[in-house]
Amino acid sequence: MYPTKQRNGDDMRADKTGKKSTSMMRLTVVALLALSMLSPLAAKADCTTPAGVEADMYYNTTYKRVQFCDGTNWINMGVSFAGTVDNLGNHTATQALNMGGFAITNAGAITGTSITGNGTALTALNASNLGSGTIPDARFPATLPAVSGANVTSLNASNLASGTVPTARLGTGTANNTTYLRGDGTWATLGAGGGSLDCTNVSSSSGVSNSRTVACDAGYTATGGSCYRGTGDGGIICSPASNGWSCSSSAGLCHQVFARCCRIQ
Fold first, then answer.
1. Rounded CA separation 62/64 (Å)
2. What is the pTM of this model?
3. 80-100 pLDDT, tens per residue?
4. CA–CA dist 188, 116 (Å, integer)
5. How many helices (H) and strands (E) does the chain have?
6. Exposed / middle / buried, residue 5 (Cβ in 10 Å: 0-12, 13-18, 19+)
């Protein structure tokens, strides 16, 4: 009921309008509060599949593990309800595994693209698994084991710095004090009596000269020689030359030179 105080028409209308506006605002606020109490707030899905927020935990029935939401991913807590320790055998890691200085023991086989670190503890390795690289010289013993060298080819004999090549490696046949090594690589025995001696004389051209030389043919050996001196004053030098004989004179007295050449047939 309105106050009995007399008001003019404008005042009365203004008072009624203000009361109506205030009532409407109060009803709106009450309605919003009621709706907020009846409607649950939407959860912030920091983790997915299933949705969860940071610090939520749930039991994963697929991996049989308790997991918690770290605000982004579901993290395996590592222990099942049965109390067994995670054996790393039934899931795929999403980050590097830090062993914290502990060793991996009783592993049947470890497969990977590379192993980095000190390999002194790696034993019983199979060399047939070496697919690339070169073994350093320091890894070979100073004295190599006695093995067949049949497949070692193209060796350079000039690299032989010591020792003696066995006679069996020089040629075929028997090498002893009664045989000699022929040019065809055969150890052979000299014929009885040494064979027959074949000799011939060779001579130079004739005429006045200060120097003349004559040589035996291939296969022959010079066994002696002589010089024919021309007329005039002066001397000559008659001596052996390279597989032959020679004459020299300062007065032009070397008229002709002879050589005796022999061979064994």
1. 6
2. 0.29
3. 555 444 556 666 777 777 877
4. 65
5. 1, 11
6. exposed
